Amino acid sequence: GENVEQHPSTLSVQEGDSAVIKCTYSDSASNYFPWYKQELGKRPQLIIDIRSNVGEKKDQRIAVTLNKTAKHFSLHITETQPEDSAVYFCAASLTDTGGFKTIFGAGTRLFVKA
Amino acid sequence: EPEVTQTPSHQVTQMGQEVILRCVPISNHLYFYWYRQILGQKVEFLVSFYNNEISEKSEIFDDQFSVERPDGSNFTLKIRSTKLEDSAMYFCASTKEGAYNEQFFGPGTRLTVL
Predict the structure, then answer these.
(1) How many Å apart are CA B21 and CA B35, to the nearest integer?
(2) In A, which residues are within 8 Å of B58 by CB distance?
(3) Which chain B residues contact residue A95 at CB under 8 A?
(4) Contact B99/A103, CB-based, under 8 Å?
(5) Which residue, A94, A111, B10, B91, is the most exposed by fewest CB within 10 angstroms?
(6) What counts of helices (H) and strands (E) characterise chain B?
């Protein structure tokens, strides 16, 4: 089955710096890659996603890149702010007719120091 | 903005007891999911449900688990005989059309098995 590896487990950056989180997946059939932000005690919330037919997507300070050949995708946050501090999860989804299974990475705890 | 709701927010039960966790997905959504998150760990896929049947399930979703959509609004997860290791946060999610669509997560039910 699908396995998603995520690194680093913890990331500490200074406010204004960039943060990069990397994930790899094992199942080449996975075709949808969402990223979620989870604040303490809260539900995961989608921050950006990318489909397998796209190599890069950007939304303001957040961007995601996908390398299908290497089965690797990354989240980039620029100009980090203290409110970006949270746990970030990457995920890989295998979509099929009527089926939809999302496998999450282990998460990255991001600390943004003011 | 419509949201996924879950009840109860916290459930405490004795080992071996049955529990039912309830979710009300967003009204025009067609795909429904359950996930669990053991404290401090990643979000784990349990099951996806479409057209009144399970479309995908994980290895975690064994015979002790079942899901049901008893009416047009509720989506339930039943654990027949709870174990200590079932203690976790259980999230329900829904999507409008399934593939490539944002999964909207509910606030979660914290299950504590004593």
Answers:
(1) 12
(2) 101
(3) 98-100
(4) no
(5) B10
(6) 0, 11
Tokens of A34: 């969402």
Tell me the HSE value of B6 on the side-chain side, using a 13 A CA sphere.
27
- Put simply, the answer to whether B102 touches A102 (Cβ < 8 Å) is no
| CB B111 within 8 Å of CB B21 | yes
> How far apart, in whole angstroms, are the C-alpha atoms of residue A25 and residue B108?
27
- Look up tokens 């890149």; give the residue: A65
B77 closest CA partner among B44, B46, B41? B46
Of A43, A51, A98, the CB nearest to B51: A98
Interval A52-110: pLDDT, tens: 888 999 999 999 999 999 999 999 999 999 999 999 999 998 776 545 788 999 999 99
